[in-house]
Amino acid sequence: MVNDSDRIRPWSEDPRYWQYKGTPVLLLGGSREDNLFQIDNLEAHLDLLASVGGNYIRNTMSDRDEGNVYPHARRSDGLYDLEQWNEEYWRRFAELLRLTAERGIIVQIEVWDRFDLSDAKGMHNWRRHPYNPANNANYTYQETGFGREYPDHPAADKQPFYHTVPGMPQHRPEYDVVRRWQERYVSKLLSISLPFDNVLYCMDNETSTDVRWGQYWMAFIKTAAAAAGAGVCVTDMFDDAWKPEESDALRVALDNPALYDFIECSQVNSRNFGEDHWRRVRWVVQQAAVHPRPVNHTKIYSAGQTGFGSGTPQDGIERFWRNLLAGSSSSRFHRPTAGIGLNETSQACIRAARAAEKLAPFWTVEPHMELLSDRADNAAYLAAAPREAYVLFFCRGGSVILDLAAAPAEMTLTWIDVRTGRPCEPVRVSGGAKLAVAAPAESPWVAVIA
Fold first, then answer.
1. Verdict on whether the full-model pTM lies above 0.70
2. Within a 10 A sphere around the Cβ of 314, how many other Cβ atoms?
């Protein structure tokens, strides 16, 4: 087991941000797939991420895509045996953790992905899955009360696999048979992951299930980790958090810091645009600060290829930067087709954020929109430590007036081109008064004045 003080955890000096190996760290990322442990050429992909300053991936424990393997072994008669493991699945998982640890990359695991057990939109994932009673030698439809098909979208919450916890509204005693195998699976996962210090645990991918489902697994993981002498951080991700002020589940997480070690609010990065996105991210960050914890965004929607509000690549760039300037602890681009993954645009964004971080670490600045004037709607966003540093993001170029009345007489302005991630030569500017700041071009730019 690693030195527990090295683990990823809320920063001791400011728990709104993370620390890793005792040092504060901002989590930035993007990748071409969510269940990275199942992809080919994993090492090269991680090398690319690290080369542009990325240090954060999402890893769903998912098994529904072409080329994926299941966690359980298949017998000669074609049935799966939930008592036996498919070692290839677990080898891939262990290799992901090893490779990321070597590169200082944080892995946010999602234990359960509701789409893995859905037949919605012709996916047929439940019909072929080892947990389906028709496909294993360990239990039957009659014993479990499970059905042969679940064609509704997972948001309808009709899959009983996610109701096996006693006390949940839809729990039935028959489901307890399945919970045994769920616990066995999570125990196996932990036997591999707990020795690594670079892992965060999120229970679900955008769940709409009763919060007691996630809380059961959070407690299960915490108990196992404590027995192993490991302090781990756990949370859950809620489907309706795109409208956070109205999400009862998110409210539960915000009000229970002893249960939810951090807030995962990825869904706010869909359906929300411009000033609405900024307002809602700020609301989440401010609410999380009541019991100070990191606010993570493991998904930024942005590919422009889906109709539910994913937005365009430009929207993704803006969401990435608004998250950071609003006080979030992480920002990661979602995979295609709902996001832009780790393409050239997202690579440049990550490089630009690292360039800005060198001049003004994001944990040293806070939103100060009141210092901006002559600002058009959704034109620019500001985080600052007045008298010390100002980080100003322009969505599409343009200009604003920045109040530097509290700043020193002489400061340095560095422009960073978000399209390339490269900083320009710094120039001198005068503090002590208002300053007109105009972006060099009609495209995304960051100005750091320090």
1. yes
2. 15
Domain final position from 363, 389, 423: 363
Whether 303 and 256 map to the same domain: the answer is yes
Identify whether 235 is preceded by a cis peptide bond (ω within 30 of 0): no
Q: Is 338 exposed, middle or buried (0-12, 13-18, 19+ CB in 10 A)?
A: buried
Alpha carbon of 351 to those of 53, 56, 410: distances in Å? 6, 14, 27
Residues 393 and 342 in one domain: no
Contact (Cβ atoms closer than 8 angstroms) between residue 202 and residue 297? no
Q: Which residues contact 276 (CB under 8 A, 6 or more apart)?
A: none
Do 311 and 385 lie in a common domain? no
pLDDT digits (tens, 9 = 90+) for 260-318: 999 999 999 999 999 999 999 999 999 999 999 999 999 999 987 777 789 999 999 99
In this structure, the answer to whether residues 247 and 376 fall within a common structural domain is no
Which three-class secondary structure state does DSSP give residue 426? coil
List the Cα angle 266/328/107 in 5-degree steps: 60
Number of domains in the chain: 2
Kindly state whether residues 206 and 340 are assigned to the same domain: yes
The verdict on 242 and 127 lying in the same domain is yes
List, edge to edge, every strand of the sheet that includes 399-403.
372-373, 399-403, 434-438
Domain extent at residue 384: 366-449
Asked if 60 and 204 sit in the same domain, the reply is: yes
| Residue 62 parent element (H or E) | none
- The pair of three-digit structure tokens given for residue 208, joined into one six-digit string: 């709409």
Share of the chain above pLDDT 70, in %: 99
How is residue 223 annotated by DSSP? H
Question: Could you say which of 342, 363, 384 is where a domain stops?
Answer: 363
CATH code of the domain containing 443: 2.60.40
**Residues whose CB is less than 8 angstroms from the CB of residue 56 and which lie 6 or more positions away in sequence, other chains included:** 27, 28, 29, 105, 106, 108, 298, 330, 332
Instruction: Tell me the C-alpha to C-alpha distance, in Å, between residue 385 and each of 59, 90, 141, 204.
Output: 35, 46, 61, 36
